[in-house]
Amino acid sequence: MTEALKRTFKVGAYSYWVPEEELPLSLDIGLLVFPLRYDILIRKSFFDFYSDHRGLYQQNPSEFINALSTHPYHTWFQKVLMVRYHSDRVIDEIAIRELFAEKVRAGALLYDSIQQRGFDTQFPIIPFTGESILPATSGRAVTGKFFMGDGCHRLSCLMSMGYQELPRGFFRVRCFRSLSPFDNTALLTGHMDVDWSTYLPARNTGAKP
Fold it and tell me: Quick one: residue 82, left, alpha or beta (phi over 0 = left, psi -120 to 50 = alpha)?
């Protein structure tokens, strides 16, 4: 049965793109991040670090990567990303370093591309929503309508460049019949201190995760 028929008859799992005319003109980035996606703040801090040490990266990429060895971005990469996507290589230190170097190179290219040419709307950020929104994957109760899906590095790069709102042309929304938003913050709490005190301080909500 096609996605369209499933949606029409409310059968099984299905998803679809929300029509642009049904979307707001912009999405509040803070609401996409807090409290489930602390990992996006960590990625933002990587882009902040890159922006501050760009000369070092250009002159000596290996030294730049060494400087990141104690950065939260490396902890997130090793303890969360590797475990989720490369579980067979989590004890291979050489593989971890190679994959991390590849991730850093991709991040540097992304930052430079957006800064020099602007955000490429051919590759939009994809928040998720649902006809029925369930508790998060950790069991945490959630509020709100939109939750971060795909494009987290692009979103965090924009945050590093000062964006607080995501313009409509930068995103498409995928709607699922039912959605349990992914709680990456819960995965991180066992590996590092989750400190929301630096979370978009200019717009402090006073909320706690």
Answer: alpha
Number of domains in the chain: 1
Tally of CB atoms within 10 A around 92: 13
**Full domain range(s) for residue 74:** 20-192
* pTM across the whole model: 0.89
Does 94 fall in a domain?
yes
The SS3 assignment for 24 reads coil
Query: Is residue 25 domain-resident?
Result: yes
Q: What percent of the chain has pLDDT over 90?
A: 72
Structure confidence by residue, pLDDT tens digits, 104-118: 999 999 999 999 999
In a domain, 2, yes or no: no
Rounded CA-CA distance 89/191 in Å is 18
Does residue 9 lie within any of the structural domains? no
Give first-to-last CA distance, the chain, whole Å. Answer: 40
